[in-house]
Write a structure and sequence with these properties.
By secondary structure, this protein is of the alpha/beta class. It has helices at about 15-30, 65-75, 100-110, 120-125, 130-140, 155-165, 185-200, 220-230, 260-265, 285-290, 320-335, 340-345, 350-365, and strands spanning about 1-5, 10, 35-40, 40, 50, 80-85, 95-100, 145-150, 170, 205-210, 235-240, 255, 270-275, 295-300, 315. It has 13 helices and 15 strands. Helix 10 links the parallel strand 13 and strand 14. Helix 1 crosses helix 13 (about 350-365) and helix 8 packs across helix 11.
């Protein structure tokens, strides 16, 4: 197949970007002619053709629409057997992998933000939301997709509820995990070195948090929950594009910024936590499990279906409740959990090879 794939970022420093990267890698390694349309990418030697999509200079909220217009123009100038997009800022048509439904997130956030709160006003005044909603509505109202991939039955339900996407157009395929990159043996080999580099001692117990958003993903309630335990050996390692100023002066948190090799930081950790308020999937959850880490995550995350409660982790009913987070962190820290190999074995069926075989088949059906 001659395939055109699009999304603004083609790298491994974010969730959607990593999915985009893994899809291109899989298809190219299976003999397909793959062209990647993106504004930024890592300098990887993948057997794909790169097409840089220049976005017009301007405020950040204008970037999605700028990418949409320029990428549409560039892709329409070429011929492909099938096209595939990973976000609403991408050209319409072909196979759309819905990594989330923005309208669903804005609807559900009403449960967490009071009508007159600072958070709700900030949301109302953020010019990015109308842009994303406009593009999302345009994608689904024009009905030009061959197939729409939903990560979970819940995402499928959101697509049908908010945009009336026909049932026969939707295929449910979860995100996957690179077992070559995220595994117990690799983490064990790196653990001592990475912990030493980060300044952790033998007695320190490290809770890792990986995200590119602070509020929605729940960093502040996690940090407060850890502080409430009043145990200086429990540390939070925050990985991602995060603002340290958003949590105030908290001495038990170390920020390391975004990383392409997240597994390296998983190696330094003893458990993973993500008290997110909305997460269509949550790639980092199964990546943490693949590394053998027990997890504390919200039931609102799609990937929570991969957690065996009480065995490989704990699930949060109320992700903003600091006392619940603290209680469930302690359940893991104070008990003998399933061994790392046992935890990792529970998500082997989410390997990218298995998941992307279904994606490849879906693309072929849309030719």
């Amino acid at each position: 197949m001659k395939v055109g794939l699009s999304y603004p970022g083609f790298h491994r420093r974010g969730g959607v970007e990593r999915v985009f990267y893994e899809c291109a890698k899989f298809l190219a390694n299976h003999g397909h002619d793959v062209t990647v349309f993106a504004s930024e990418w890592e300098s990887e030697c993948l057997p794909v053709t790169y097409e840089r999509v220049q976005r017009r200079a301007g405020p950040s909220f204008s970037r999605p629409l700028s990418f949409f217009r320029e990428c549409t123009r560039r892709m329409n100038a070429k011929s492909f057997d099938v096209r595939s997009a990973f976000g609403s800022e991408c050209p319409i048509g072909g196979v759309f992998w819905a990594q989330s439904v923005h309208k669903a997130w804005l609807d559900r956030v009403k449960k967490f933000r009071a009508p007159m709160s600072y958070g709700r006003w900030k949301q109302r005044l953020n010019p990015l939301h109308p842009v994303l909603l406009h593009l999302e509505k345009r994608h689904f109202s024009e009905r030009r997709h061959g197939k729409v991939i939903a990560l979970t039955p819940e995402v499928k339900s959101d697509l049908q509820h908010f945009y009336e996407v026909p049932d026969e157009k939707i295929v449910v395929i979860p995100n996957g995990v690179s077992l070559e990159e995220f595994n117990v043996a690799r983490c064990a080999n790196m653990r001592s070195q990475v912990r030493e580099e980060l300044g952790y001692g033998d007695r320190d117990r490290v809770v890792i948090f990986v995200a590119n958003e602070t509020e929605r993903k729940g960093l502040l309630p996690l940090v407060r929950a850890v502080s409430s335990l009043q145990d200086g050996t429990i540390k939070v390692l925050a990985v991602g594009r995060l603002n340290p100023n958003s949590i105030g002066q908290m001495g038990n948190v170390k920020f390391v910024g975004p990383a392409s090799d997240v597994a390296r930081y998983f190696a330094a950790a003893d458990m993973f936590a993500l008290p997110t308020q909305y997460e269509a999937w949550g790639l980092v959850i199964i990546e943490a499990l693949a590394c053998g880490l027990p997890v504390v995550v919200s039931r609102l995350a799609g990937a929570s279906v991969a957690v065996e409660e009480g065995v490989t982790g704990e699930l949060l009913d109320e992700p903003r409740d600091e006392s619940e987070i603290a209680t469930k962190l302690l359940r893991i820290l104070d008990r003998s959990n399933a061994g790392r190999d046992r935890i990792a074995s529970t998500i082997e069926h989410y390997s990218w090879n298995s998941v992307l075989s279904r994606y490849e088949q879906t693309l072929a059906e849309c030719i």
